[in-house]
Write a structure and sequence with these properties.
The complex is a heterodimer of chains A (160) and B (247). Chain A has helices at residues 18-28, 60-64, 91-95, 121-125, 138-150, 152-158; strands spanning 4-8, 39-42, 48-51, 70-72, 79-81, 102-104, 109-111, 131-135. Chain A is globular, with a radius of gyration of 16 Å. By secondary structure, chain A is of the alpha+beta class. In chain A, the strands form 4 sheets. Chain A has a two-stranded antiparallel sheet. Chain A has 2 domains: 1-52 and 122-144, Alpha-Beta Plaits (2-Layer Sandwich), CATH 3.30.70.20; 55-112, Alpha-Beta Plaits, CATH 3.30.70.20. Chain A contains 6 helices and 8 strands; from the N terminus they run βαββαββαββαβαα. With 247 residues, chain B is α+β, with helices and mostly antiparallel strands. Chain B has helices at 25-32, 82-98, 103-112, 132-140, 172-176, 211-217, 225-236, and strands at 7-12, 15-20, 55-58, 61-64, 75-77, 146-148, 155-157, 184-185, 190-191, 194-195, 199-200, 207-209, 244-245. In chain B, strands 2-1-5 form a 3-stranded mixed beta sheet, with helices on one face. In chain B, strands 8-9-10 form a 3-stranded antiparallel beta sheet, with no helix packed on it. A two-stranded antiparallel ribbon of chain B has the order 3-4. In chain B, helix 2 runs antiparallel to helix 3. The relative contact order of chain B is 0.09. Chains A and B meet through strand 1, strand 3, helix 3, helix 5 and helix 6 of A and helix 4, helix 5, helix 6, helix 7 and strand 13 of B.
Chain lengths: 160, 247
């Protein structure tokens, strides 16, 4: 089985927020952007970047979770949540270097992207192709590496 | 569940099951769709067998199914026999004396025909002594609270019944309490009689957590999740076409 991955192209993003609404409507049944697991970061000087969980290979959130509320699907590499097992210590929220896990006070559970178990709604509704769900081929992996290099310094600075 | 483990079989209420070695009886019953009442069980925490409601019968013996790992095949378990019914009704009587107003408990008591015993109801503080808060604290990485004392005087508290010094104020105990009894506050952060300082995000001023909480997580950056995203998104904004891929 080929692994699949969400490909993000910030330069193509038009800021329509369709991805946030589609993501939120899955879990909450309503358009509730605050409950979304993909977030658009807007900048004052124009432009926006959609960001969601990177499904890190050495995931800090997975390391700190002692109750098994976060677990990785070995086949797809995606980390998903089991809300029944969560005790709400919020350590994973603190350790995520990218701020991509949230604790929902309303649902009393951890909110994290699990790529909709193989059918990401955000990629399906994106009108401009900024988000696409593609096969994780070698060329894609190389692009990912180049992308990681680009913000290595920023993360190093923030998390010494 | 580790699927490399050998399988064990048995029957629950006449229904055959096959689970991995070491699966608890409660989980095995769940795979069959048989509901066993329980109050202290939390799927993410190690079993403790405190509430005694999940008792099942096997060969004239009663055992707490949440804390019973199945290690041998051929076991015959009964979850709704007269013996089990009687035992659960007795346990409910004792629990009701502790927590007479607990909704879930009252529902179960109606089902099992149990009533609180006035002789035992001198101190109905509402706490079930299920120790979910204690186990949640351990799982979260602190050991601030414990069950102190024995028998009727047993209660959850910090060392010497004082505000616990090891507490980091993460509120995991209050969130995992089945009765919602643990008094706490998010802002200001108050729990177990202690008030905590709160760290504010240096960029947006949103509350991130307590300093102790962030120290336990090993975090040096005190940015809130939103500002963390903003920090690295800045570097991604002007990347050329399709250079940004994530798994």
């Amino acid at each position: 089985m080929t692994q699949k991955t969400i490909q993000v192209t910030p330069s193509r993003c038009i800021g329509c927020l369709n991805c946030e609404l589609a993501c939120a409507s899955r879990d909450w049944g309503q358009y509730f952007p605050a409950g979304s697991k993909i977030n658009l970061v807007f900048f004052q000087d124009g432009g926006q970047v959609p960001v969601t969980c990177f499904q890190c290979q050495e995931a800090p959130c997975l390391k700190v979770c002692q109750t098994g509320a976060l677990n990785r699907n070995e086949l797809t590499g995606v980390i998903s949540t089991d809300p029944d097992r969560c005790v709400g210590c919020r350590t994973c929220v603190s350790v995520c270097p990218f701020g991509n896990i949230n604790y929902s006070k309303i649902g009393r559970r951890i909110e994290k992207c699990d790529q909709c178990q193989g059918q990401p709604r955000c990629a399906a509704v994106c009108p401009s192709g900024a988000l696409s769900y593609v096969d994780d081929l070698k060329i894609v992996q190389e692009r990912r590496r180049a992308f990681a290099e680009s913000f290595k310094e920023v993360v190093k600075e923030a998390f010494k | 569940m580790d699927h490399t483990l050998p399988k064990v079989t048995g029957t629950i209420d006449g229904h055959e099951f096959e689970v991995c070695h070491g699966t608890t009886l409660l989980e095995a019953a769940k795979t069959l769709g048989i509901k066993i009442p329980t109050l202290c069980h939390h799927p993410g925490l190690p079993p403790d067998g405190n509430c005694r409601l999940c008792l099942v019968e096997t060969g004239d013996k009663l055992l707490a199914s949440c804390a019973f790992p199945i290690r041998a095949s051929g076991g015959v378990y009964l979850t709704h026999s007269p013996l089990v019914f009687e035992a659960r009704a007795f346990v409910l009587k004792l629990l009701l004396s502790r927590a007479p107003n607990n909704k879930e408990l009252l529902k179960l008591a109606e089902e099992y025909g149990a009533q609180a015993d006035p002789r035992l109801s001198d101190d109905p503080d509402g706490c079930l002594r299920c120790a979910r808060c204690v186990r949640a604290c351990q799982a979260a990485g602190s050991q601030a609270i414990a069950l102190i004392g024995r028998g009727r005087g047993r209660k959850v508290a910090g060392p010497f019944f004082e505000p616990p010094l090891d507490c980091v104020g993460c509120l995991a105990c209050a969130r995992s309490c089945p009765t919602g009894l643990i008094a706490c506050g998010e802002e200001p952060r108050v729990i177990w009689g202690r008030q905590f300082d709160l760290v504010k995000c240096p960029q947006c001023g949103r509350t991130v957590g307590t300093p102790e909480e962030l120290k336990r997580a090993g975090i040096t950056s005190w940015l809130c999740p939103d500002c963390r995203r903003r920090e690295y998104s800045q570097a991604l904004k002007n990347l050329p076409e399709a250079s940004f891929v994530r798994n």
